[in-house]
Each structure stands twice: as C-alpha cells, then as structure tokens.
Design a protein that fits this description.
Keywords: Signal. This is Lipoprotein. It comes from Stenotrophomonas bentonitica. This protein is an alpha+beta fold. It has 5 helices and 9 strands, in the order H-H-H-H-E-E-E-E-E-E-E-H-E-E. The protein has a 9-stranded antiparallel β-sheet. Helix 1 packs antiparallel against helix 2, helix 2 packs antiparallel against helix 3 and helix 3 runs antiparallel to helix 4. The longest helix has 35 residues. The protein starts with a helix and ends in a 15-residue tail after the last strand.
Length: 243
C-alpha cells in the first residue's frame, strides 16, 4: 500500500514540471502519502494503548495515550481514543497514588524461638513531629501480633517521651470527629512506646481510613499530633483475626 502511494506521488511529480494540474495532484498525493504514514504509525501506538486498557494497566495506557495525542494528534486514530483518555489518566493517577500509599507500610514476619512467628505492620507519620524541642522526628505506628505477648498497637517516638502512665489519645479518621481512646506507657526505658488499649478498634479504623491523626500527650508539656496515611494497608499481610 505504501509503495503504491509513493510510486503514484513520484509519477505526479515528474509530470508536474510541465503541467500545473499535475503539480497540484502531485502535492495532494504527497500529502496523502504522508498522512497514510502518520496513520500507520499512530495505529501501532494505538494497539499498545488498547492492549494496556484491556489489561487495566492504566499507567501504561496513560503513557501510550499521551504519546498518541501528542505526536499524532491530527490522526483519525488519535480522534478515536481522545474521548476516553481523561478517564484513563484519572485511573492511572489513582493507581499511582495507591502504590505510593502501599509503599508507606512495612511488614515483618520474625520467628520467636519455638513459640511461633511475630507479625507486624508499621508506618511512619506523614510529617515529622517535634515532641521535646530537639527538632522534628518521625513518629511510628505499629500493629503487632506476638505469639506470647499477643496483639498490640502502639506509637513509637525517636526522642522525648510520652506523658502517659495511663491517659487518653484522640484519634481522628479522615475528616471525622476526634474519638478518645485509652492508652498507656509501659514502665520501661528500653523503648519510647505508648500502647493503645483497644488495638483492634484502632486497626479497624486504620484499614478503612485514608488518613488517621493521633493526638497524644508528651512529657515536655501539652500534646502533639502525628498524621498517618493508612490508605495502603494490606490486611492480608497480618493474621486472619485482624479482619
């Protein structure tokens, strides 16, 4: 097909030297040949786009669709995919955000002697928090299932300390109202941790929420708030009872 178009274009070009009408036809033939080449190249990209959409690989579809609309925007193929491309872009952005949220969590499976496996899921606060005037540092939220110590949910500080032998924390889910939950600080200097008494309730909030904010009292005075983007929590990575 391409070869026939090119041959025809060349023939018109030779005749155009002595015939204005032939020159016009030669120009039309050359334009048609160029458009045919563009359409063929665009169709190749469109096939990759269609395959990605069929596989619901939205990020790959976004790349191919963007390339098609940018490099071959005047083709019939581009006109075909353009109406649905905005939805594909939105799905690609959502997939990228989901991956980002999932990557915020860390999961561990650690053997505990002959007693079994300790499972844990932990996430750092979105922003660092200054709890004692020494500078902002990460706050960690941990869910743990220990074969001997059983199930716990707790906050961990990198510096400073909690003002909390027994206290209340305020937990806010997304844009909801704060909910008070009982908490306690173990009598040990080995770790700066504060346990949330109703760990299962906190887990259920975390697995349903996009963001959880926890306001807690500190030894330096007053309270601080740590914000956790929990939307990427993979509940299958923890024991069945968490569900």
């Amino acid at each position: 097909m391409k070869r026939l178009i090119l041959v025809a274009a060349c023939a018109f070009a030779l005749a155009a030297c002595s015939n204005p009408e032939a020159e016009r036809q030669a120009q039309q033939a050359a334009a048609a040949a160029a458009k045919a080449q563009q359409e063929e190249k665009a169709e190749g990209v469109a096939k990759q786009y269609d395959m990605a959409v069929a596989a619901q690989d939205w990020e790959r579809a976004r790349i191919h669709g963007g390339s098609l609309l940018d490099q071959y925007k005047d083709t019939d193929v581009a006109a075909r995919i353009e109406p649905g491309y905005a939805e594909v872009k939105a799905k690609a952005e959502a997939a990228r955000e989901t991956r980002r949220l999932q990557a915020l969590w860390q999961y561990n499976q650690i053997p505990v002697g002959t007693k079994g496996i300790q499972s844990s899921a932990q996430i750092y606060s979105k922003e660092r928090v200054d709890v004692d005037g020494s500078g902002a540092k990460p706050v960690q939220l941990v869910f743990r299932d220990h074969p001997e110590w059983k199930r716990h949910a707790y906050l961990v500080l990198q510096a400073g300390d909690f003002r909390c032998p027994k206290c209340q924390v305020k937990v806010t889910v997304d844009d909801g109202k704060p909910v008070s939950m009982a908490a306690w600080r173990p009598d040990t200097d080995e770790a700066i941790a504060m346990f949330i008494t109703d760990q299962k309730a906190l887990w259920n909030l975390a697995r349903k929420a996009k963001v959880i904010s926890i306001e807690f009292p500190v030894k330096a005075g007053g309270t601080r708030t740590a914000v956790f983007e929990t939307g990427g929590l993979d509940t299958s990575r923890m024991p069945q009872w968490w569900k």
